[in-house]
Specification:
Elements (H helix, E strand, L loop, with lengths): L1 H5 L1 H8 L1 E4 L17 E6 L3 H16 L5 E6 L11 E2 L10 E2 L10 H9 L4 E2 L12 E4 L13 H8 L1 H18 L13 H7 L3 H4 L11 H16 L8 H6 L8 E2 L4 H11 L2 E3 L4 E6 L4 E5 L4 E4 L1 E4 L27 E7 L18 E4 L2 H4 L9 E7 L10 E7 L10
Parallel strand pairs: 2-3, 2-13, 3-9, 7-15
Antiparallel strand pairs: 1-13, 4-5, 6-8, 10-11, 11-12, 14-17, 15-16, 16-17
Helix pairs in contact: 2-3, 3-11, 5-6
Length: 414
């Protein structure tokens, strides 16, 4: 999702927890790198863990004083975390389909740079994936009341006025300008999200909801912006803060890696030279006098000088060390279901009450109808991903992705 990808770098930098036992201070000397390597464990091989391995290895290679020995532990059988793929009809005869983290944007400079340096092919969304072949529809008001193609500028201006549109664009660009300061060498180190948010002047956005943020017309926020926050974060504009609301609008330069984005994270780990333990869950961390004792689900014990926790702590099932120097507060999560299925080239027009028009291949919904006593949309978003790479049982099929708060369908490929 676009919103999730834009914030991925910020999340990556703030969601890793470092446990370390630093050696005593002493003067560096020419033979210092001949000492025993500093052993680092990284728990999690998603975006945060894989990139941490890569950047640490690069820093170690440039250093004349510190040699690192890095090991990565991942409880799943693959590298990439949310960035993973599935195969239509569970057959590798078809091209894989992204299950999550499918798009990132130009503001994600580390991802763009990594893809280029690793020789991966970047592709801009187009056709069905871009919602352009048959248009994008937005459903709001009384369910099915109105559909609108986002590329129809005249209708957008007529319905919302030019001020709301340009104001949203200006606010989004201003947010991006502050966000991009993360990449400056003058940006200070930080110990928590609050500090870096204040430095980047983003607290003004996180302190109020998207719906309440001043300067944009209410109709535009409820009908247009809310469709974007629901597809990216599964939240309505009265519940999500203004930063994520603007992130949802920052789709400029969207791209993805041909063959799946997880290749970036695979390359991070491969090029780091780290030892990788897949299908290995870390069960506990114990602080010793000079090292950390790490116990895995296989009953194996490892000793490390530093540990980076690159997974959501409260979902990790790890018994924390005692005493815990900085308690990690519980984090609320949105329960979102993603359904992939193969179907006809377009949705059925009658479902959207369209009598003489084709249904769009991208449909975003809002909650405005519910607020006025109408029925709740059956899904948050509907997006056609493209045709299968080959016919299935002699017929052409297209991959469709649905997101929503409940499971859609009975499971399995149609």
């Amino acid at each position: 999702m676009i919103g999730g990808s834009l914030t991925s770098v910020l999340v990556l930098l703030t969601s890793c927890h470092l446990f370390t036992v630093l050696p005593g201070a002493h003067a560096a000397d020419a033979s210092s790198k001949q000492r025993k390597p500093h052993r680092v464990a990284i728990i999690g091989a998603g975006a945060a863990g894989s990139s941490a391995a890569y950047w640490l290895a690069g820093a170690s290679n440039r250093s004349k004083e510190v040699e690192l020995e890095i090991e990565v532990f991942e409880r799943e059988g693959y590298i990439g975390g949310r960035s993973t793929v599935v195969f239509p009809h569970n057959s590798k005869a078809f091209q894989p389909v992204e299950l999550g983290a499918s798009i990132f944007v130009t503001a994600n400079k580390n991802l763009i740079r990594a893809a280029q340096e690793f020789g991966l092919t970047l592709t801009a969304p187009g056709g069905e994936l871009g919602g352009l072949e048959f248009g994008m529809g937005r459903v709001f008001g009384s369910w099915y009341e109105f559909t609108l193609c986002d590329s129809d500028d005249a209708r957008l201006v007529a319905r919302y006025g030019l001020d709301s549109i340009t104001r949203t664009q200006d606010l989004t660009q201003d947010m991006l300008n502050h966000y991009l300061e993360l990449y400056n060498t003058t940006t200070p180190d930080w110990k928590d999200v609050a500090r870096i948010s204040a430095f980047l002047n983003l607290t003004r956005l996180t302190s109020q909801t998207t719906e309440a943020y001043q300067g944009v017309g209410e109709k535009y926020i409820v009908e247009m912006v809310e469709g974007d926050t629901r597809v990216n974060y599964a939240q309505n504009t009265d519940k999500i803060h203004a930063l994520e609301g603007l992130v949802s609008e920052a789709a400029t330069g969207a791209s993805f890696v041909a063959g799946s984005n997880f290749q970036i994270f695979q390359q991070f780990v491969q090029r780091s030279g780290a030892r990788v333990h897949l299908n290995t869950e870390v069960k506990s961390l114990t602080k010793l006098s000079k090292q950390w004792l790490l116990t895995t689900s296989h009953g194996t014990l490892y000793f490390f000088d530093s540990v980076i926790l690159a997974v959501p702590f409260h979902l990790s099932n790890i018994t924390p060390p005692h005493p815990f120097h900085a308690p990690i507060p519980p984090q609320p999560y949105i329960h979102l279901h993603v359904t992939l299925l193969t179907t006809s080239p377009t949705p059925k027009s009658f479902y959207f009450h369209l009598k003489n028009a084709s249904a769009p291949v991208t449909v975003l919904t809002t909650s405005e109808g519910v607020a006025h006593g109408g029925p709740k949309p059956e899904f948050n978003s509907l997006t056609y991903q493209g045709p299968l790479s080959a016919p299935f049982r002699g017929r052409e099929e297209h991959v469709m992705l649905l997101t929503g708060e409940v499971v859609f369908g009975a499971g399995g490929w149609g």
